[in-house]
Amino acid sequence: MNETKEYRSINQSAVDAVINIESEDRLIKESVLLRNCLVPSSEIDCSYERKDVFIRDGLIEQIVDAQTFDLLKERERDQLAADTDRTHAKVLEIDCTDRMITPGLVNGHTHSVEHWLRGAIPPLPLEMWIFQLILNEPRGERGWFKERSWMETPSAMIAISALLCGIETLLSGSTVIMDHLLCRNLEDVEAAVTAYKALGIRCFIAPMLNDDATMYHNYVPLARDGDLRQMKCQGCGCCGGLDKNGCFRTKKSEYSLEGRASMLKLWEDAVKKFHDPENGVNIAIGPVTCFSASYGMLEGAAELRRKYNLCGHIHLLETRAQALQSKQFLEEHGGSSVKLLEKTGFLQCPGTSLAHGVWLTDEECEIVSKANATIVHNPLSNLRLGSGVAPLRRYKNNGVKVCLGADGSCSSDGQDMLEVVKIANFLPCVETPDYKDWPSPRETYLKLGCENGYNSVNLGQKGGAIREGYLADICLWDLTSLALLPKTDPLGLLARGSRAQGASCGNTLAECWVNGKRVIRNGEIVGCDVKLLRKILADAQNYIHEDGKVLKPESHDVTRRAEKEYRTALGLPIEGETSINEFERKEYEFPQDRTLFDTTLGK
Question: Is the pLDDT confidence value at 132 over 90?
């Protein structure tokens, strides 16, 4: 296959065509009696109960023993209400004898725009991978309009990718999504809002912003011998580093006061225009990392959160290189990203979620636990990018809440939260030989996936469980679908099994409600025309292959230089250097229970 990347057509009319299927009429709050549901008892024991579950006005209003709910009284009440309110919905009764009910999962961290490149970037660590993403996504300098892409790519591109992201999230049993959205302006934010509103998913859109003065420089750690290398080359640039003169950097990039003001304004403008929690649309405050956001920007972010009662979301200690950056860039804050977030006030605000958190120390765990913040575990992308394995047992023992996320589809290649639950359930089994400490599928699904997920977006006392008074964000699973047969342990199969495809296999996820609105009916998405969306995606661009090197570090001058600094910082051999010990390097030690290789950075 030797087709080249080529932009076709994505415009607002395409978005309108996909969502213009009377979704506003379809996505209405229903009064529904789910009779005789199979209900998992808790995340601790393995029992089930049969219950009648009644939802009304977006809430789980009542849960009673199976076949004991008096629907006649409810219908009489409905009739009385209808006399004064003709819009009051009648009660819909559904036989759930062959259905299991669960709370919705939470996709606690993703980047919807990554769908345009999923499957394309070869195996690379995060710090090299991210350059390829930025350069080659539709708005990148090698994007749909080449060097004009950042300005000319329509925001409709974001709406289409958010639809795809939201559909995959919903179809895997998730009712909430946290989209850490790389955006240019309010139009980009509005595009994502439009998509998620059409689907009916409860969305938290966190515009992912920074105030770096120099693009790229704060994405890569410093070479541990950068000073000596600069002295040797005397500023001539022969060492091929990332600095503007071709030398190796010796300090982090400066920040832009003008950029900070602009980003803080964009966050606040987005809140004023789109924040609508009652209808499931939430704007969150989402700095990129502790390295690409200045102290002042993090303080301003915390102030906005307090002012408008907003959730906050940020990448934290995803890789060993980021743990190294903390030591290099944040010496005045004890070499700790967690301590920096605490000092700026960002960490302590309710509803703080920290994406990845693979490389926390025990001291940092204590700080995160005290702040009631939540680590978002993204096991698929952590493995794909070689970032490490978050030590869930250690975090649990330190009182740190952990929820689950798919991460963007460029680093996980999809938004299937059941895949996330499965790998998150299996990975802790290699942490300890004591099998009594291994997590049950219920703990991973109900505690991490649901309860802790809702806590991560500050809805911990309102959702994430099948309880009276909780949000009607619920899923009905077909117990006769091939994926849940034979009849053994339905929730165990859901958390650790697979889903057979094909019309005759049955739709494993039969129905789903978010905020009391049915968003999946008979296994199908309600809020958009999925067949048309498939056609638009198929026509939007050609395959990204070219000469086979377009998405590798050697394909671009900036990525070549960044790779050299990265390899030097991490103590990896560099082509053309006779010895990695030519220069004196600082030594650093890191926790050893995150990877299979020695994580110490010596000389």
Answer: yes
